[in-house]
Write a structure and sequence with these properties.
The complex is a heterodimer of chains A (about 350) and B (about 325). With about 350 residues, chain A is an alpha/beta fold. Chain A has helices at about 30-55, 70-80, 105-110, 120-125, 135-150, 165-180, 210-215, 225-240, 270-280, 280-290, 300-320, 340-355, and strands spanning about 85, 155-160, 185-190, 190-195, 195, 220, 245-250. Chain A has a 5-stranded parallel beta sheet with strand order 1-2-3-7-6, with helices on both faces. The N and C termini of chain A lie far apart (about 65 Å). Chain B is of the alpha/beta class. In chain B, about 35% of the residues lie in helices and about 20% in strands. Chain B is built from 12 helices and 14 strands. Chain B has helices spanning about 5-20, 45-50, 60-70, 90-100, 100-105, 135-140, 150-165, 210-225, 245-255, 270-280, 305, 310-324, and strands at about 5, 25-30, 55, 75-80, 115-120, 145, 170-175, 180-185, 195-200, 205-210, 230-235, 235-240, 255-265, 290-295. Chain B has a 7-stranded mixed beta sheet, with helices on both faces. In chain B, strands 9-11-10-13-14 form a 5-stranded mixed beta sheet, with helices on both faces. In chain B, β2, α2 (about 45-50) and β3 form a beta-alpha-beta unit. In chain B, α1 (about 5-20) packs parallel to α7, α8 (about 210-225) packs across α12 (about 310-325) and α9 (about 245-255) packs across α10. Chain B is globular and about 60 Å long. Classes of the chains: A alpha/beta (about 350), B alpha/beta (about 325).
Chain lengths: ~350, ~325
């Protein structure tokens, strides 16, 4: 196990600040790749910002904001193959957009409409996991099971810093290590679990060092640096594919938006620190990097933003055009072969509703 | 056509199903090298290899949680929970995911996993090796539950569970793992879920039970010979429940005593009583009486015989119903 010791302390970084901090680069990424990555970031950002508006307009329900988490999501997904599977938490509700999932599907989920419940096989994106960390064992089981079948598929599970306190994280990570599952455990450490700071989640110095106990490498990256995230994930995926087993990636940011639309962080968060984080938010940071490298111009950036906005606007129109769900859907899909009582219940409900 | 103990019938079913379907795999604590603490999985690892009979870390939520992922990768996992009460950490996965994931995908993905575990008391074991946790499972939407009482049913219901497209939990009465041998059909053998079995015909009262309590009910029926003719209905599957068989039996006898080892409040006997109240109340000639474990923690084993429903307690209940 010597190769897994010690977990990293410093955050991996590639994007500089255009001043004292120099820019690095990632091998093998063409200008087109970089632009595609930027498109992904902008799509997620646009989706997130519009969702907040839609929530305020009463067009979607309670919404878990992921502003400034876009680099962690896009950077990691771009490092995977289309056959690899993504296991999102609610913080990554729109990650399927990077796999071609329609915007209306994700908005429908937040509208509580059945059109938002997709088939994971269509996108290689598992269902949104609402309970904390309980999808970590799913991703591990999927990766392990795929390897047993001789299939070259990696899985990635996304979860927050608070999730590392859950038993499910521990059991999932334990299995991942023992089974040498080709899985990536991706922790978006935004340092807050609603109002609880990471210092009250763990006495460990970093979350990455937890990985040592599971016999897997623990990597730390700047979560607002999309290239650092990309490179770390690409490395983890390559290790997974060649039988090297799982990797734990701790991507560090600072949560600069409320936990969700129902949350008021002013009672607990460090507002000055939030403002500082916003100045270095991940989309603008990558955009400036691309401009410095001559890959992106303001007019192309504007085009990309307009394109994303159009997609999201079309998405909400489509989501709102979904017909009201049939009450039969209350009963359908819970079982492949349902107990007979469900048929009686549906009959009664139809009679009462006159439907 | 061999005579087998109940645990041997479980083992036989696993061999047959792993042979029949290469996507079936067994996972759990000590199931491989050791063959299970009760030897239910003995011989599987030698026969099918370490990838299809997997010794896992000691982590029940991890077993069930990875089984969900194994389903998504195309496997049909059969999870062993080593003992009834050891399964409680896995309830997190059961409730949050196992019973919901198919619904979450609007029926596009199936989760054909099986959970099997020894359950129940009477074996003079330490604390938390004696529980009857079926209510937690039956109450969970999306999950089916079967509880055999005989070797043949143990084989047939487990095979049905493994082949079923939905998650099924099979509780095996550990007290009867090695009490009686019975003829068990050779090779492939399936007892469909949702069909109760009349274990003994009678005309005056229906004794409703499942698992280990079927054996108590049969002894009660014998004890009452000459005094009353008791029918014994072995439910075999709690969900889906064979309501028609239940109602038909009580229509014939007019009386029902429901026996369950689990604590009383909101236990499965209450569900049986409710079904009879809704569907057969005008056929009843007396109250439906439950004989159950008490609403206390399962006691130290020197007192367990006072806790588990006994022949005397059930006979007493039957006499009360007959006198009503």
């Amino acid at each position: 196990v010597s190769q897994v010791l010690p977990a990293e302390g410093d955050l991996r970084r590639i994007i500089g600040d255009g001043e004292a901090l120099p820019d690095g680069e990632v091998d093998g990424l063409t200008p087109d790749d970089l632009l595609a990555l930027y498109r992904g970031l902008v799509l997620l950002r646009t989706y997130d910002e519009r969702s907040l508006v839609y929530h305020r307009q009463g067009r979607i329900g309670t919404y878990a904001i992921f502003w400034n988490h876009e680099a962690m999501q896009a950077g990691s997904v771009f490092a995977l193959e289309g056959r690899d599977w993504i296991f999102p938490s609610y913080r990554e509700s729109a990650i399927g957009l990077l796999r071609g999932m329609p915007v209306s599907t994700v908005l429908s989920w937040w509208r509580g409409h059945p059109a938002g419940w997709w088939n994971p096989e269509d996108f290689g994106v598992a269902s949104i996991c609402v309970p904390i960390a309980t999808h970590v064992p799913h991703a591990v089981g999927f990766a392990w099971g795929s390897a047993l079948k001789g299939e070259d598929r990696v899985s990635i599970a996304y979860f927050g810093d608070g999730a590392t306190s859950e038993g499910s994280f521990h059991e999932g990570a334990t299995f991942a290590g023992v089974m040498k599952a080709p899985a990536i455990l991706f922790c978006n450490n935004n340092q807050w679990a609603i109002s609880t700071p990471v210092s009250q989640q763990t006495a460990a110095a970093t979350l990455a060092e937890k990985a040592i106990g599971y016999g897997m490498p623990g990597v730390r990256v700047d979560g607002a640096d999309v290239l650092a995230v990309y490179e770390a994930t690409r490395e983890a995926a390559a290790r997974a594919r060649t039988g090297g087993g799982p990797t734990f990636i701790e991507a560090v940011t600072y949560r600069s938006a409320p936990h969700a639309t129902a949350d008021d962080p002013s009672t607990y968060i460090d507002e000055a620190r939030v403002e500082e984080e916003k100045e270095h938010e991940c989309v603008g940071r990558f955009g400036r990097y691309l401009e410095r490298r001559g890959v992106l111009t303001e007019s192309v950036a504007e085009e990309i933003r307009t394109e994303a906005l159009e997609l999201v606007r079309t998405g909400i129109v489509e989501a709102e055009a979904e017909p009201p769900p049939d009450p039969a859907l209350v009963f359908e899909h819970a079982y492949a072969d349902p107990p007979p009582s469900l048929a009686f219940d549906l009959e009664e409900l139809r009679r009462i509703l006159g439907a | 056509v061999p005579d087998l103990y109940l645990v041997e019938a479980v083992n036989d079913a696993l061999h047959v199903e792993l042979e029949r379907d290469p996507s079936v795999l067994v996972l759990g604590e000590d199931v491989g090298r050791l063959g299970g603490v009760f030897r239910a999985t003995a011989g599987l690892q030698e026969r099918f290899g370490v990838d299809r009979c997997v010794d896992t870390p000691l982590a029940e939520a991890g077993i069930l949680g990875t089984a969900v992922g194994l389903c998504m990768a195309g496997w049909r996992p059969v999870c062993e929970m080593q003992y009834d009460a050891f399964s409680y950490p896995a309830l997190d996965q059961l409730i949050n995911h196992v019973g919901r994931y198919r619904w979450r995908t609007r029926g596009k993905m199936s989760f054909p996993l099986t959970i099997r575990m020894p359950y129940g008391g009477g074996v003079r074991a330490p604390e938390l090796h004696d529980d009857s946790p079926e209510t937690y499972y039956v109450h969970t939407p999306g999950v089916k539950v079967a509880i055999p009482s005989t070797p043949a049913d143990a084989k047939g219901l487990l095979a049905a569970a493994i082949r079923d497209p939905d998650p099924v939990v099979v509780f095996e009465p550990k007290l009867h793992y090695r009490t009686t041998k019975e003829e068990v059909p050779d090779g492939e053998y399936v007892v469909p879920l949702g069909q109760a079995r009349v274990a003994r015909q009678g005309t005056d009262v229906t004794l409703v039970g499942y698992g280990a309590m079927v054996h108590v009910a049969l002894r009660v029926a014998e004890a009452l010979e000459g005094e009353a003719s008791a029918e014994v209905l072995d439910l075999r599957t709690l969900k889906p429940l064979d309501e028609d068989a239940l109602v038909a039996s009580v229509r014939k006898t007019g009386r029902a005593v429901v026996v369950q080892e689990a604590p009383r409040v909101v236990g499965f006997a209450a569900e049986v009583a409710a079904v009879l109240a809704e569907r057969a109340i005008f056929d009843l000639r007396g109250p439906v009486i439950r004989v159950t474990g008490y609403d206390v923690p399962y006691p130290y084993w020197q007192l367990e015989d006072a806790y588990v429903p006994s022949v005397a307690r059930v006979v007493d209940a039957v006499r009360r119903v007959l006198a009503a």
